[in-house]
UniProtKB/TrEMBL annotation:
GO terms for cellular component: cytoplasm. CXXCXGXG motif repeats lie at residues 152-159, 169-176, 191-198, 205-212. Pfam families: DnaJ, DnaJ_C, DnaJ_CXXCXGXG. The gene is dnaJ_2. The keyword Mitochondrion does not apply. Its cofactor is Zn(2+). PROSITE patterns: DNAJ_1 (PS00636), DNAJ_2 (PS50076), ZF_CR (PS51188). Residues 5-70 form the J domain. Zn(2+) 1 binds at residues 152, 155, 205, 208. The keyword Chaperone applies. Zn(2+) 2 binds at residues 169, 172, 191, 194. This is Chaperone protein DnaJ.
Length: 380
């Protein structure tokens, strides 16, 4: 029986790219897999035919020969199949293995060769640092103690006694992974002999027991720039966990949290300060003294007749911008305070004041005029 055209077998065009051929193959392999077609006696032969076609077309050299000579390229008259053997003989599962690697390689650490773990990079570390608003305003140098893994001094991080170089694992030949054939699938797993490192240590270091690193608390000096806020992240390259067996160290990430302040509320680079004033001071106006985040004082003029919630701005008295940005502003919000625990004399004076102040409360007059209008409309 004449062989079918390989492109027809895969359902692909002759000018198809490598990605298009792989996509077509995956679709056909899934469709014709014998495990999914137990009621089709021809499924296995069709599945093998698909694998045979892809085995040729996935290889650029074989594909070029096939495109020029067809099936004759792999028969005796043309000098045999490039690379030797007939495409239908040998391990047809190798083509399927490529797709298996493509689908699951990321979950299993990649293909052999990419999983070499002679020197593994250390893990990144996180350190949460709490600072005051004053420290965030001015910036500071701070010493922190970080528990981490450091390179072993005894073996210089190699994990071997006297710093000797590890040997290549005889089981996986340094790949760190081994493969096993299970039916149509090739299963890849970490090498059981070297636990995926690709190396064997003949004489483990007695100090670190072959790990190449030890647990230790380190003191680090950290520069906290002015203007940091909660959520700011500072990266210290190479200050994380030491790598395994001489691998590079990870990074240390410091996450800043700025503590709440008793006087100031922060909004980006702006600061808000709520200042209580007496009823008489709000009515008469005058000057008040307010604190600033740099430890200084500023005089603020209160206009006469000020109401609660009135805001006044002090330019550039807020927080500095991170990385040299302009300073924000400081906003003073007035909170007019009603006196409490009045004496009899104070109450009498306020009653007298109330009688004389009917025309001095425009907001109250306006509100109650609207209320009377509302009630009259309801009656109508």
């Amino acid at each position: 029986m004449a062989k079918r055209d390989y492109y027809d077998v895969l359902g692909a065009d002759k000018g198809a790219s490598a990605d298009e051929l792989k996509k077509a193959y995956r679709k056909k392999a899934k469709e014709l897999h014998p495990d999914r077609n137990s009621d089709n006696p021809d499924a296995e032969s069709q599945f093998k035919e698909v694998n045979e076609a892809y085995e040729v077309l996935k290889d650029a050299e074989k594909k070029a020969a096939y495109d020029r000579f067809g099936h004759a390229a792999f028969e005796g008259g043309m000098g045999g199949r490039p690379g030797g053997g007939h495409p239908g003989q040998g391990d047809f599962a190798s083509a399927f293995s490529d797709v298996f690697d493509d689908l699951f390689g990321d979950f299993m650490g990649g293909r052999p060769g990419s999983g070499r773990a002679r020197a593994q990079r250390g893990s990144d570390l996180r350190y949460n640092l709490r600072v005051t608003l004053e420290e965030a305003f001015s910036g500071l140098q701070k010493t922190i103690n970080v528990p981490t893994s450091v390179a072993c001094d005894e073996c210089s991080g190699t994990g071997s006694e006297s710093g000797a170089e590890p040997t290549i694992c005889p089981t996986c030949q340094g790949m760190g992974k081994v493969r096993a054939q299970q039916g149509f699938f090739t299963v890849e797993r970490a090498c059981p002999t070297c636990q995926g490192t690709g190396q064997m240590i003949q004489n483990p270091c007695k100090s670190c027991h072959g790990a190449g690193r030890k647990e230790k608390e380190r003191s680090l000096s950290v520069n906290i720039p002015a203007g940091v806020e909660t959520g700011t992240r500072i990266r210290l390259a190479g200050e994380g966990e030491a790598g395994m067996r001489g691998g590079p160290s990870g990074d240390l990430y410091i996450f800043i949290e700025v503590a709440d302040h008793a006087i100031f509320d922060r909004e980006g680079t702006h600061l808000h300060c709520r200042v209580p004033v007496s009823m008489s001071a709000a009515a008469l106006g005058g000057d008040i003294e307010v604190p600033t985040i740099d430890g200084g004082r500023s005089r603020v003029k209160i206009p006469s007749g000020s109401q609660s919630g009135r805001q006044m701005r002090l330019r550039s008295k807020g927080m500095p911008g991170l990385r040299g940005g302009p300073n924000g502003d400081m906003y003073i919000e007035l909170a007019v305070e009603t006196p409490v625990n009045l004496t009899s004399q104070q109450k009498e004076l306020l009653r007298e004041f109330e009688k004389l102040s009917e025309e001095n409360n425009p907001e109250s007059s306006s509100f109650f005029t609207k209320v009377r209008s509302f009630w009259d409309s309801m009656k109508g």
